[in-house]
Amino acid sequence: MRLASLTWCLLLVWCGFGCSRSFSSQDLGVQYEPPSGMDLRSVEAGPPALARFDGGLELRSVRGAAPALDAGPEAVLTAAGLKAPGKLLQDTEGTLPVGPVARYEFSQTGGARTLVYFVPRKDGFVLVTFSAPERDYGTLSARVERSLSTLRAW
């Protein structure tokens, strides 16, 4: 009986460590737990450092002076070396556990949508982008937004 209890305990501990989706990167200067099903695909040292996940999710870490929080999506995307992915639908500011953020939402031709979170830091900024077809965007973007409570940046 004791051996069975010990076996179950070890199995639970192993699963707790082995099943974690947590992602941490010194290159990006972040720790993050993406939604289930959005597993890490690749990390590029950059610059800018980039982590790609399944399902259209990316984290980008840009070093240097960050645009002001209210600079707008064009200034933020340009500073990250990106172009606006379509027509701007929403531009809001808010706060997450990681700190103040700006949130942008775009509509692309062809029926896709893109969500962008801008997270300024002292020495740069983190950009979280998520793109999906319109039919899947609502539920998947909600999962991405909930997961942002786990984002930590240094």
Automatic annotation (TrEMBL):
Signal sequence annotation: 1-25
Keyword Signal in record: yes
UniProt source species: Myxococcus xanthus
Keywords: Signal
Domain of life where this protein originates: Bacteria
Protein name as annotated: Lipoprotein
